[in-house]
Here is the input.
Amino acid sequence: MDSARLSCPFCWEWVEEPASLPNSYSGDAVGGRCECGAVFAIDSTGKSGGLTLLDCMTLACDGSLDAALELESGKDYEVKTKPYQSSGNTLGRMRGHSYLQPQAWFLKLSAR
Here is the structure.
């Protein structure tokens, strides 16, 4: 996946280029980790937010689906999304509603 620079919405530092995530729920997710502890995954279609969130939750729990499913939104973690612009060819880029464009989903576990 060709990518543009992406900053973490929790600490505003640049994150590494998205890579394959072996500890994700779907097994074929692309994303990474920030130095502040947040994890992120890319929803390249703009239509798979739920799956992308589950990938982030599983990644944050070091690959444990059981632990990920016990997390409570607002209590155990915070989620932020931002548009993701690939630096690839812009000729075929979709125009229209932002929910149909690629999104980067960031998840940060709350301090326990």
Notes: Confidence is low (pLDDT under 50) at residues 89-93. Residues 19-109 form one domain. The two ends are 34 Å apart (CA to CA).
